[in-house]
Amino acid sequence: MYLFKNKKILLLLDQANVSACNFLIAVLIARFLGASSLGHYASFQIAILFSLSIMGSFLLSPLLAKYNNTEISWKEKYLKGTNSLLLLFCILSCIVIFAIDHFICFFSKAYPLFFIVPYLIVEYFRKVLLLKEKYIEMLFLGGFSYTLSIATVLFSFLFLKDIDIESVVIIQLVVFSVAALTYYIRNDCLQCDFSIWSLKRTMNANFKNGKWLFLSSLTQWFGEPYLLFLSGQVLGPAYLGILRMIQNLVGLLNIIIQIADSYLVIFFSKLDETKINKVIKKYTYITVLMGLLGLLLSIFYGFDVLETVFGDLSEYYDDVIICLPIYILIYFFQFLVIYSRAKFKVIEKTDVIFKATSLAMIITVLLSFILIKTLGIVGVSLGVLINWCAVYFYFLRKG
Fold this sequence. Notes:
α2 runs parallel beside α4 (about 115-130). The chain has helices at about 5-35, 35-65, 70-105, 115-130, 135-160, 165-185, 195-220, 225-235, 235-250, 255-270, 275-310, 315-345, 350-375, 375-399. The N and C termini lie far apart (about 40 Å). The protein folds into 2 domains: about 1-215, no CATH class; about 220-399, no CATH class. The radius of gyration is 21 Å and the shape is globular. About 85% of the residues lie in helices and about 0% in strands. About 45% of the residues are buried. The chain is mostly helical and about 400 residues long. The model has no long low-confidence stretch (mean pLDDT about 85).
């Protein structure tokens, strides 16, 4: 009974489920379809996550930061206005991803691209439930969409023939659509107000907090997503697949990162700036100790663990043993960035985030081709590390 009353445990369970399912889908694709198919899937995933970051900056982050401080009479109207903007954003995202597919061709058929719509809606629902502290419902929705999709994909690989990467995405499309529709019918949680007055007031409320975050999302794309995408185009999808394997293994830390990224904004919104700085200092000490431990484990055991999970990688041994420790350092700096970024969101100095990511973007773009051409996937990893370091040290300079 205590488990279902402790919000921290429920948050951890929810994010553990999502991160585990993302990890397992990469393992299944690598095991059954190979590194090249995983690279193709990763390219599509980068586009979807880019849309999610834009939605987060313009819709979710302002909502999480402002909702608790909004006058009661405006709260539900503000949420309805944000719901309306979500649906408009989903339509726009669909148009954009089809346009990108025209040049890049993610898949041989177009309909898997529609997965972006139910994915964005499910992620939006999960954040709204987090905001309203309905943790059990959030856990149920994540379990429905992510766990059921991974179970269906596994069943398909084991018992059906001719399963390709498009089939995997179609399964996800169907399961996420059913999850979003079922949750909407049961809870009627997507009430909208498309009146000009409501949309205008909601956009104005989000603009001050969200404009710099929106621009930051654009500049952040020229960090890790840009380098990974470029590696797939320059080195080939198999190498992008290898990077994705490393990312997924180290990315189990993503459980904590995603919780921190969502929860810290809400937590910090209830504190003054002095107390926020004390919390960040405490978390930084803990992160340094954990980072050192992770670095040692990756050096001595990383390759063996990666090969056990994803299969024979002896062909890529020299690259992998260098990339794994680099990715530990990447996640170390990513944690530090998240602490400061949450603070700047709450104190509404989001222009600092934009300036930091702009600086990192310029450095990354200038170095990207040189690093990838000369060092291959090691160069990609170094480029990602340089990008996160640039953001963090700019934050440090701005306090």
